[in-house]
Design a protein that fits this description.
The protein is α+β, with helices and mostly antiparallel strands and 138 residues long. The protein contains 3 helices and 5 strands, in the order E-H-H-H-E-E-E-E. Strands 1-3-4-5-2 form a 5-stranded antiparallel sheet, covered by helices on one side.
């Protein structure tokens, strides 16, 4: 784990099911996340992903790279272009800083409309992050 290391890409197919399930799982019952007619009435072409689902996907992106023992210390993200059904969000990251076993990773998630999510994740990796989890899967 070194400053400048690149993470990704992780391609996330954005389905209607993912959008609705993420909203329900995070107890976000805003109609724009599950009712296409309500979303259109509010100016959106369709339902769109909520920030909590995006936050979870960013967390998954980090732990997929650093392994299941990685601990997310801070997640600071900002949403941009919406994720609609049928989009593919591509997450990428760059390690910006390393202090012992803790790193700050700049994260970017884009879809066909532009930047969906930008931000940073502070992650601590037991053992310094040089080890691979069992089976060699990161």
């Amino acid at each position: 784990m070194r400053a400048g290391d690149e993470l990704g890409p992780l391609e996330v197919p954005v389905t209607r099911t993912l959008i609705v399930a993420g909203a329900v799982a995070s107890r976000d019952f805003q109609d724009v996340h599950h009712d296409p007619e309500a979303a259109r009435a509010k100016g959106s072409p369709d339902v769109f992903m909520n920030i909590l689902t995006t936050n979870g996907l960013v967390g998954r992106f980090i732990t997929d790279h650093f392994g299941p023992t990685a601990v997310l210390r801070r997640v600071a993200i900002r949403l941009g272009a919406p994720n609609y059904p049928g989009d593919t969000m591509v997450l990428r990251g760059t390690v910006e800083e390393v202090d012992g076993r803790t790193a700050v990773v700049r994260v970017l998630g884009e879809n066909g409309h532009g930047r969906h999510v930008t931000g940073t994740v502070t992650v601590t990796v037991p053992g310094g992050g040089d080890e691979r989890p069992a089976g060699g899967v990161v």
